Amino acid sequence: MRFWLGVAQASHVQRGLAGGFVQTNRGARSGIARMAPGDGITFYSPKTDFPEGARLQQFTAIGRICDDELWEADLGDFHPWRRRVEFELEAHPTAIAPLLDLLDLTRGRQNWGIVLHRSQLEITEHDFGVIATEMGAVSLVP
Q1: How far is C-alpha 100 from the geometric centre of its chain's CA atoms?
Q2: Which of 65, 86, 99, 116 counts the highest number of beta carbons within 10 A?
């Protein structure tokens, strides 16, 4: 089992929550193809929307990858790759600031935001557990 962090504006994360899917790296297939059923995924949203959204800096969704199926959505001139996620709908958004010294990803990094400029990265089991606990998604704590 692996654990993933997606980085996307909150409005984009909400579309995934509503549709039960994950899409990362501007819809590229490569990132989500690395995921496997049972893997944990959480999303960090630096802003509410792009490009003019308000600063947010919260973890905004968390769940598990459901199956091996990847599909290409048809959004007219945009065809992003997606896969199914069972999101913990009772989880609540959680600010990253109080967790900075607790997470392996950010601990001891003065410029921690640089790490989050990628749209998908693998995180440790420890970090996923801390985030899941703080978001109230105890059923997802490894």
Answers
A1: 17
A2: 65
